[in-house]
Design goal:
Blueprint lengths: L6 E2 L5 E2 L3 H11 L4 E5 L3 E2 L39 H4 L2 H9 L2 E4 L6 E6 L2 H10 L4 E4 L4 E6 L5 E5 L2 E4 L5 E2 L9 E2 L2 H8 L5 E2 L4 E2 L15 H16 L5 H16 L7 H13 L4 H14 L3
Parallel strand pairs: 8-12
Antiparallel strand pairs: 1-2, 3-4, 3-5, 5-11, 6-8, 6-10, 7-8, 9-10, 13-14
Helix pairs in contact: 6-7, 6-8, 7-9
Length: 295
């Protein structure tokens, strides 16, 4: 049996790593980039020096960037396979607080199809090829060989986690890895499914832009913004997904006619930031929603 890697203490001597770190080191040795998750099963927040890109990391976290912070900052971009980093003092402190281990699927050349309920699992069993399956709290992770763009809510109860995303490690699973099918790739590039906003069921507008505004009165827009703010404010879980879906709904309804002003966007961003979203995350979610709608 392989002996656990020992952690060198600051004042001499060694100690056995916590269980989460032992799991992380095993995954890292297999080429899977890992990171710790804190209470709430979310990444550790950026340290003071790294907040608001103070460390000079690259915009939108498309790459880990030049930041050399010793702590596990930057969410998925902090994931690493380097034992020296994983067992460093700052990371060891995080591992001792960690409630779970996460990994960057795209960094390992993998894609996770996250099925969140029984209906999503039933769909996968008829639409997707068999592959390695890992049971989750509410559903299953179907893991494929091959990386792609990540996207949430590609259909009811289905998220795709690959590049620029993290997935919780829940064990080796069962079955053999299959190659990523075109069916899954297509889910990330098709038009988003209709999203129910606070005011109506919004779909991608067919108009190419221009022309007379279709909204009945200014109060219609104001009511929609107010209810979108309320929807974000009342989120109790999955805040990232709620913010993105709300932005998507607002842009689906009002994104092409020129009605939205900087003041409206500022209200939405402010609501998201009260739930813990950073200005950068708000900008990313808004940009991603615009891209998804072709705006």
């Amino acid at each position: 049996m392989t002996q656990p890697t020992l952690i060198r203490r600051e004042h001499g001597g060694t100690s056995t790593p916590p269980e989460a770190l032992r799991t992380a080191l095993t995954l890292a040795a297999a080429g899977v980039p890992v990171l710790p998750l804190r209470r709430g099963k979310v990444p550790f927040g950026n340290c003071h020096a790294c907040k608001s890109s103070g460390c000079g990391d690259r915009p939108n976290m498309k790459m880990p960037g030049p930041c050399r912070c010793p702590a596990p900052c930057h969410g998925w971009a902090a994931a690493t396979t380097e034992p020296a980093v994983l067992t460093s003092p700052a990371w060891t402190a995080a591992w001792r607080q960690a409630v779970a281990v996460a990994y960057h699927p795209g960094g390992a050349g993998l894609t996770v199809v996250d099925l969140d309920d029984v209906d999503a699992i039933a769909w996968a069993r008829t639409a997707l090829p068999a592959t390695r399956i890992v049971a989750t709290t509410r559903g299953e992770h179907w893991i494929y060989r091959g990386a792609m763009t990540s996207r949430n809510a590609v259909r009811p109860g289905v998220d795709i986690k690959s590049t620029m995303a993290y997935a919780r490690y829940l064990g080796p699973g069962t079955g053999h890895l299959a190659d990523l099918p075109d069916t899954v790739r297509a889910l990330a590039i098709k038009a988003p499914s209709p999203v129910r906003s606070a005011t109506q069921t919004a779909t991608v507008p067919a108009r190419a832009g221009g022309g007379e505004c279709p909204h009945r009165t200014p109060a219609y827009l104001e009511r929609g913004i107010a209810m979108a703010v309320e929807r974000i404010t009342e989120a109790r879980s999955q805040v990232h997904a709620t913010v993105y879906r709300t932005f998507l709904a607002v842009l689906s309804t009002h994104g092409r006619c020129g009605c939205l002003t900087d003041a409206h966007v500022a209200r939405l961003f402010a609501a998201a930031q009260t739930k813990g979203e950073s200005p950068r995350h708000c900008t990313d979610a808004w940009t991603n929603a615009r891209t998804a709608l072709g705006l």
